[in-house]
Amino acid sequence: MKDDDIKKSPEESAIPPSDAPVVDEKDAGQEIPGVLPLLPVRDIVIFPYMTLPLFVGREGSISAVDEALAKDRFIFLATQKDPAMEDPKSDELYTTGTVAMIMRMIKLPDGRLKILIQGVTKGKIVEVVEGKPGTHVRIERIIEPSVKEDTLETEALMRASREKIERILSLKNMPVEILMVTENINNPGVLADLVASNLRLKIEEAQKVLEEEDPMSRLTMVNNLLSRELQLAEMQAKIQNQAKEEMSKSQREYFLREQMKAIKHELGDIDGKAEEADELREKIKNAGMPKEVLKEAEKQMRRLEGMHHDSAESSVVRTYLDWLVELPWKKETKDNLRINKAREILDQDHHGLEKVKDRILEYLSVRKLKDDMKGPILCFVGPPGVGKTSLGKSIARAMGRKFIRISLGGIRDEAEIRGHRRTYVGALPGRIIHGMKQAGSRNPVFMLDEIDKVGADFRGDPSAALLEVLDPEQNNAFSDNYLNVPFDLSKVLFIATANVIDPIPPALKDRMEVIRISGYTDVDKLAIAKKFLLPHQMEENGIRSGWVKMQDKAILSVIQQYTREAGLRNLEREIGRICRKVARGIAEGEKGPFQITARNVPKYLGVPSHILEKEAEADEVGVATGLAWTPTGGDILFIEVSLVDGKGNVIITGNLGDVMRESAQAALTYTRSRADQLGIPKNFHQRQDIHIHVPAGGIQKDGPSAGITIATALVSSLTGIPVRRDVAMTGEVTLRGRVLPIGGLKEKSLAALRGGIMHVIAPELNRKDLEDIPRHEAKQVKFSFVKNIDEVIAIALKRNPFRTERKKPSPKTASAAKRAHAGKPLPAKRSAPAKKTAGAIKPRKAR
Ligand code: ADP
Q: Could you tell me if 403 and 391 are in contact, meaning their C-beta atoms sit under 8 angstroms apart?
């Protein structure tokens, strides 16, 4: 007997068919023979009343089935102790088994049989009769002791079992019909067998139940097994519930969203919308928003999904969400704070500016040591084109940060900085948030250009919003009206720029550390043009190195005759023009290299737009050359005085401010008081009208520093002695003729040099400012430092007009004046720091 194979059918492992007929022992009715064919089964214990299909494959087993079918259909089923055993001997089988009846048999194509059997009664093998082809067993039926079915104990035990079954079934979500079957069973033994056959018991356990002959003990045993099963089921349900709870929230949302999609699809909404929404949701998740912002975004997202795709409101919400997801809430670049490297980069990009670079490096060093530095904001102040913006860019490059620049020039509306509320049609965030989005990282170098040009009017005060931006205590929660959620600006490195410091509101000024960058000298400009501007413009215009050769003299002629500025903007533009002309020449087939000399510059740039003042005209009566400070650097201005017959009116023209008019009056009074010494008629002011004019009337001029220039022009026209054209002057004058200090000597001197004027008269109290002037330039200019107007007139007029004894200067002053003439500094004695007066001429647009 070999190759027998009996397997339980797939269905068997599940709960048996609920309609399994339960056959009462009494109804089995038939005679069971004493000797039966043996069918060993591998992994199941068959109980009486159980109906189930079995597959039969082993040769001995097939013949046993055949034999049974040929006779009375009875067969004895005994379970193998070891299911893996192919050909079990009789001692490898449990002796207690079940007599079953084969109800049906089907031959399968692979030679195996499928039989449906029903357990009839228990039996015990008393003898094994080995034979060919099958094994037979002599059995003894097990007759169970009878039980009283209606005792309390029996009833209690049966009920307990039924309740457990009910609990298990409900925990496992299984059909409850099976309960009806158990309700109808009154015999505890039968109930025990039925339950045992349906519990997934291990072979040994099931065999034990089968072997227990006493029905009550058997049911107790099964009841215990049920308790364990119930515990298991409860535990299982608990685990499943937990997992379900975790899943269910997201699953629920998923299902709901899918449903919503389906509904919208039905309603004819555009397909892409759902995908778009999913994409947006994903972006919101990944944007790294802080909690409260995320909450707001999710709220708006839910609103959006409830809206019709084409509604105006939905596009407003979508734009808002787009802004939220694109802002750098978390993204930042890693700072590179190697000071040596920073120095290298600043030097690479900029010529000179040593003090400024040092100050920037100090600032960066402190930042390196103190990460959360809440120090002042740097503010570069200087005329246009001196490299304020490009310094900012270099700082960003040195630190490895992004660079963003916004211009504040002309902003009057607070909403420009802070945005409009979303309730306005077409509302958008302000420039700060715009800049942050553009930067794409939350720690860029952020340049606020022209902070001095911010104005305030009825639309609110932009500088108040700027204060919030720049205040380290508040800017970690900057509130933009459009966003309506706080944005953290505390990691941003703000740098401001301005042309002039005065118009900046004091509260803003307080937060800033001012670094002044004044204009460049011609020597600096030449160096910068050679090293930076020319190569840069050549590259911009696609000209290879070597094609253009520009001589120093050519560059200087561009500097002096085509531009007149403190910065480099126009110079760069003019060099650009030359490069474009060269590029065109190359395109038209001209052969390089192109030599640019001082002579052929006009070929490229046309007639010079500026001529040197000294070359302009000859010395004149009544015209004095003054020096002015302007936000764009220094400048030269001329003051004309004309006397015409009249009644002593004083006419002042040239768009002058109050301070300059008062200066003119003071100069006039001084001249009258010195009429005697100057040899002019005492009553000149009664017989003549005096007209004082400052050309370039389109620009408003103001400030006291033209005082000595007006006085000089006045004296010249009254005495008829010409003023020396090669002398320029600056200084405030008092009624008594004292010369008071002015501001911006450096800018003014550079302006004089640019105009080709080499002799400057300045107040004695400004002598200390000499050290601000680059040495090379200081050497070129001859400075005359003066204490009173008489000295000015003596130097500036072609001839000394004081014909009577001039109030003799003290010996000290005399020697000082001499030295000053020689351009030498005074010995150790320093003048007390003079209060600089705002000797400024402020250009304003003509109204
Ligand atoms: P600002 O912002 O002060 O108006 P920019 O930064 O726009 O001036 O400078 C104008 C041009 O001059 C830029 O091309 C800049 O690179 C160049 N420039 C200014 N200063 C220097 C310097 N010290 N060295 C080299 N190039 C300079």
A: no
The pair of three-digit structure tokens given for residue 692, joined into one six-digit string:
């004082």
> Rounded to the nearest whole angstrom, what is the distance from the C-alpha of residue 410 to the centroid of ligand 1?
22
CB contact at 8 A, 556 and 571: no
Q: Dig out the tokens for 434 from the structure.
A: 């715009």
Residue of 355, 524, 568, 572 to mutate, ligand 1, most atoms within 8 A of C-beta: 568
- Å from CA of 572 to ligand 1 middle: 9
Of the candidates 46, 37, 49, the residue with the CA atom closest to the CA atom of residue 8: 46
CB of 532 closer than 6 A to ligand 1? yes
Query: What is the pLDDT at residue 506?
Result: 86
Would you say the CB of residue 351 lies under 6 angstroms from ligand 1? yes
Give buried/exposed letters for 701-715 (b at 16+ CB in 10 A, else e): bbbbbbbbbbbbbbb
Render pLDDT for 502-526 as a digit per residue (tens, 0 to 9): 888 888 888 888 888 877 877 888 8
Strand partners, 548: 594
CA separation (Å) from 41 to 35, 119, 154, 200, 213?
18, 13, 33, 16, 21
How confident is the model over 452-499, as pLDDT tens digits?
888 766 667 788 888 888 888 888 889 899 999 999 998 898 999 998
User: What is the CB neighbour count within 10 angstroms for residue 654?
Assistant: 19
Please give the single-letter amino acid code of residue 528.
I
> Low-confidence residues of the chain, pLDDT below 70?
1-30, 131-133, 267-274, 371-375, 456-459, 611-617, 631-632, 696-701, 803-847
Which residues lie closer than 8 Å to 578 by C-beta, 6 or more apart? 537, 548, 550, 558, 596, 601, 604, 605
Question: How far does residue 522's CA lie from ligand 1's centre (Å)?
Answer: 15
Residues designated as active site: 705, 748
Q: Is the shortest distance between the CB of 317 and ligand 1 below 6 Å? A: no
User: Looking at ligand 1, which residue's alpha carbon is closest to its atom 26?
Assistant: 350
519 lines ligand 1 (CB under 6 A): no
User: Does the Cβ of 569 fall within 6 Å of ligand 1?
Assistant: yes
Dist. CA 34–CA 97, nearest whole Å: 14
Ligand 1 geometric centre to CA of 275 (Å): 49
Is any ligand 1 atom within 6 A of the Cβ of residue 386? Answer: yes
**What CA–CA distances, in Å, run from 114 to 5, 51, 66?**
11, 13, 12
- C-alpha 169/C-alpha 265 separation (Å) is 41
What CA–CA distance (Å, rounded) separates 378 from 396?
13
Tell me how far CA of residue 14 lies from CA of 10, 174, 191, in angstroms.
Answer: 8, 11, 19
SS3 (DSSP) at 103: strand
